[in-house]
Amino acid sequence: MIIQIIKHYIKLVIGKSDPFWHLFVFENKVNKNTWLNRRKILSSSEQSLAEKNNYEKEELYLNSDDPLVKQGYELKQKTEKYFKDLLLDKTDIRILVHVPGEIFSPGGFSLFTNFAESFEFIGVPTRILGWSDDIKRDLDDFKPNVLISSDHFKYLEKIDWDAIKKYREGNKLSIGLTASLAEYGSSPLAERLDWAKEHNIDFFYSFRDSDYVHTRKEYKPFFEVGYKILFIPFGANILHYYPVPNIKKYLDYVFLASVNKHKAQRYVKYILPIVSKYSGLIDGPGWKNANDFNFNRDRDRYVYARSKIGLNIHLEEQVDTACEVNERTFMLAACGIPQVVDDAKLLPKLFSENALFIAKTPNEYYKHFETIRVNPGIGTTRALVAQREVFEKHTTFHRANDFIRQLIKNKLV
Hints:
Layout: H1 2-13, H2 19-29, H3 32-50, H4 52-55, H5 58-62, H6 67-83, E1 95-98, H7 106-121, E2 126-129, H8 135-142, E3 146-148, H9 153-156, H10 161-168, E4 174-178, H11 189-198, E5 203-206, H12 210-215, H13 220-224, E6 229-231, E7 254-256, H14 264-275, E8 281-283, H15 297-305, E9 310-312, H16 316-320, H17 327-334, E10 339-342, H18 347-350, E11 357-359, H19 362-374, H20 376-393, H21 396-409
Parallel strand pairs: 1-2, 1-3, 3-4, 4-5, 5-6, 7-8, 9-10, 10-11
Helix pairs in contact: 2-14, 3-15, 6-20, 7-21, 14-19, 17-20, 19-20
């Protein structure tokens, strides 16, 4: 602790912000009951999941007096019915999705796994290439004609490019990588584009908004050398994220998120006034009081079912530019949790005005939280809107289906 304080003051003297200090302050000022009860809450949620067949009975949904539970069930049934095997036997596409290890990238593991499941659900044969899997085996056994991975060097060094070259001698294989910029902390773009040309990369894709990508000048080099950028924005995987009936809501809030040093100041400004006063659940990789974290999407819907309010916060870039909103935005909405969120600039394009509780300032953030806490009916009204909009427009099924459409339209398969 003393060393952390000394480092903080040294950075103050030289005029640098200290994200680790902000994280230190945040974690140490969280209501102590939040950390003390964390394991008990997670264990209770895991036990509920183990009894899933008792909790998730159709009659419990249909007879629920919670409008969010009832609507969520109806929307889930309708959405899944529409997308199930939608593209079965309508395309020859077979996708191999490169998924990072949970420890290396919890966010990447969640994101790529969600999309792999969604491709498979809509009828597109899909296989996951695990972090330590032998790609030669998957190429020979599965015979994919599309491979998607990241352009991050840690992903690329996990792939046997000689095996791919040999496979391509007798098979079509279109390879797509993430379209990232040096401004995100990646290596220089020119170097990565040269590498892509050398290895016959066919296209790039982005999780960001298409208008943002096409108007930001830093993306121009992709197009200038002839690459297409496809789009597959974040969404809610409703195979895992949906309401659960008959769970008592006893948590004042829930905040499931990995530690992000780039959000440290925003944690302190926006969230700390709430979490220092009220008891809830904070969990995710990187929190010092959650060092036994384990990733479990199915358990998390039972965690959300126990919460009255969902807290959400974005990066400064997501607030300043209409580039994207995080996955959590869609997950909370799908689970039927009234959501307090900062004003990410893309939100008005994705949700109607009365779907979320959007705060432009820390003071507004706290006021929104208190409004829902004191008047839960107001929270329910907006959560119903957000939930409907996610199920109707923003599931990973929608994203997967559109991605396949883009592959075909751009003649990449």
